[in-house]
Amino acid sequence: MATMSPHDLSRAQLNLETAQIAWRELQRHFASGATIAISAELDLVEVAFQISADNKSQVTQWVDSGKISRVTDAQALAWYESDVMVWAIVARPYVLIQERR
């Protein structure tokens, strides 16, 4: 039986903490500036793992390439008006958001 590394266990735990939620339920987090949009190109759990592991070089690369960014007012309004369901996970102090595919 193969054993999991601590990193694999951490990723598995994060995967269990991901949830589908209505964007409207996340308004207070958006209002406080804590919501981060994650591009569909990226794995939401991997991004949460890299943020929680404080991997600044990887996170900076994603920010610089536009693959992660704060949720904009326009994006928040569009999601609110469309009553969009999103994938979300907490990577303190942020709530990471990814549109459902």
Name a few traits of the molecule:
alpha+beta, 101 residues, 5 strands
Overview of the molecule:
The structure is a single chain. Helix 1 packs across helix 3 (44-52). This protein has one domain. The relative contact order is 0.25. By secondary structure, it is α+β, with helices and mostly antiparallel strands. It has helices at 6-16, 27-31, 44-52, 56-64, 73-82; strands at 19-22, 35-38, 68-70, 85-91, 94-99. It contains 5 helices and 5 strands. The longest helix has 11 residues, at 6-16. A 5-stranded mixed sheet has the order 1-4-5-2-3. Strand 4 (85-91) and strand 5 form a beta hairpin. The chain is globular. The N and C termini lie far apart (34 Å). 44% of the residues lie in helices and 24% in strands.
How much helix is in the residues? 40-55%
Can you summarize the main beta sheet? 5 strands, mixed
Q: What is the first-to-last residue Cα distance?
A: 34 Å
Strand order in space, largest sheet: 1-4-5-2-3
> Shape, please?
globular
**Looking at the chains present, what oligomeric state does this protein adopt?**
single chain
Unreliable stretches: none
Tally of helical segments: 5
Average predicted confidence as pLDDT: 90
